[in-house]
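Re-running SDR family oxidoreductase to confirm reproducibility after the cluster update. Everything else is unchanged from the original entry.
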Amino acid sequence: MAAPSFRIDDRVAIVTGAGSGIGRRLAIGLAEMGAHVGCLDLPGGDLAGTVAAVEETGRRAVALPADVTRSDELTEAVAAVERDLGPLRLAVNAAGIANAAPAEDMPVEQWNKVIDVNLTGVFLSCQAEARAMLRGGGGSIVNIASMSGTIANRGLLQAHYNASKAGVMHVSKSLATEWCDRGIRVNSVSPGYTATPMNLRAEVAERVRQFESDTPLGRMASVDEMVGPVVFLLSDAASFVTGTDLIVDGGVTCW
Ligand code: NAP
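Result of re-run:
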């Protein structure tokens, strides 16, 4: 038997949330592992920077300005990927937002916005991606959930965010079972505290110290540390892995 391959050479991928943070690093990481990458984010972000970084690896890229809450824009983005790069085989859905408010005061609009982007946006992304993958003979999807889908973070007032991420984990399992006999695997990766712009602001420095002391490995993750787990699930090395959630949290959920 051949050794398992973690390479994803010449496969065509789409990454949502690719203009910043984890999604941006994953778009570059997929290219480093051989994929051509469609980079999707809201218009106005730094998609051009991500596309340039992907191209520096020698792989091809296309910028896809789109909103993950808009089914029509997702369909158009997937069509653009297939036109410019080839049949879609891999997808990583990392677009997301976070904010906080005490539950008793949270306006329904704030609840709905987080659910719309983080949960409905992931479902609509999977739907658009899978329609192409079902036509093309299969693929592999990784949705970025969060350890907040498993725990309620100490001190963070974000019932809407936590609920959205629990939903991402479970919609991933549901879609894995719906598409299991048609060649599509669906999994989620749940990062712990990760050093992205969201967590590097001076005003959250005290909170970051708390995050670090809550983490058995004693620090936040770097975005680089999300690449291996995501590429593993996308690759043929994970050919018998579907419907699972891989927690990448430095051990937070052990305590
Ligand atoms: P980030 O740097 O803010 O990146 C998220 C990206 O998603 C941004 O470029 C954002 O654009 C984009 N986005 C937001 N709404 C969108 C929409 N409707 N359509 C398309 N793109 C949209 O955040 P991050 O920390 O890298 O987080 C990436 C993912 O990891 C999120 O799903 C987050 O919940 C998850 N996560 C993060 C951590 C952490 O500690 N950082 C931990 C666990 C899970 P704008 O900047 O224009 O809003």
